[in-house]
């Protein structure tokens, strides 16, 4: 199964219209994105809860790490650098945090609201090299549409 990002964006827009609660939005997006493609083994948000610290937020899949400092892992790099991390092989990523031993590749996108960075969207796959630049661009656009006005 491959994601129809146009359909996903329309579905998410309809489900989230008028909602301003960040956690409710994250929960809805985690569910919709996770079930949109078989490549997505774990899909969730890590929220910025204090300076330089991410804590697990709404997600779909097995257990995730509870706390991730900006200084560690793919999620930390996305938050620290403020840019999307597309990792075809997590074993080759310096400082990768193995929250699940099944993860082979990862896509992490910073999430911004008007006040700045609020979270990162983390998508893990049990397949190597599962994500593309097209996946990243489409998901970045969805996140901007949902959170950009908050």
The major sheet is characterized as: 6 strands, antiparallel
Considering DSSP H and I runs of 4 or more, what fraction of the residues is helical? 25-40%
Given the C-alpha coordinates, what overall shape results?
globular
User: Beta-strand percentage?
Assistant: 25-35%
What are the segments in which pLDDT stays under 50 over at least 5 consecutive residues?
A: none
Order of helices and strands: HHEEEHEEEH
Could you walk me through the main structural features you see in this protein, from its secondary elements to its overall organization?
The chain is α+β, with helices and mostly antiparallel strands and 150 residues long. The chain has 4 helices and 6 strands, in the order ααβββαβββα. The protein has helices spanning 5-16, 22-34, 73-81, 133-147, and strands at residues 42-50, 53-60, 67-69, 85-87, 105-113, 116-125. A 6-stranded antiparallel beta sheet has the order 3-2-1-6-5-4, sandwiched between helices. α1 runs antiparallel to α2 and α1 (5-16) runs parallel beside α4 (133-147). The model has no long low-confidence stretch (mean pLDDT 95).
Which descriptors apply to this entry?
six-stranded antiparallel beta sheet, 4 helices, 33% helix, 150 residues, alpha+beta
């Amino acid at each position: 199964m491959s994601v129809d990002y146009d359909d996903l964006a329309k579905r998410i827009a309809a489900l989230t219209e008028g909602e301003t609660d960040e956690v409710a939005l994250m929960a809805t997006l985690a569910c919709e994105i996770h079930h949109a493609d078989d490549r997505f083994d774990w899909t969730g948000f890590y929220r910025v809860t204090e300076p330089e610290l991410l804590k697990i937020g709404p997600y779909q899949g097995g257990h995730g790490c509870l706390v991730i400092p900006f200084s560690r892992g793919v999620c930390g790099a996305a938050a620290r650098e403020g840019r999307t991390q597309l990792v075809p092989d997590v074993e080759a990523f310096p400082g990768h945090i193995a929250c699940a031993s099944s993860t082979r590749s990862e896509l992490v996108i910073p999430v911004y609201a008007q006040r700045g960075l609020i979270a990162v969207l983390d998508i893990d796959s049990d397949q190597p090299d599962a994500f593309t630049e097209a996946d990243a661009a489409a998901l970045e656009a969805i996140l901007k549409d949902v959170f950009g006005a908050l």
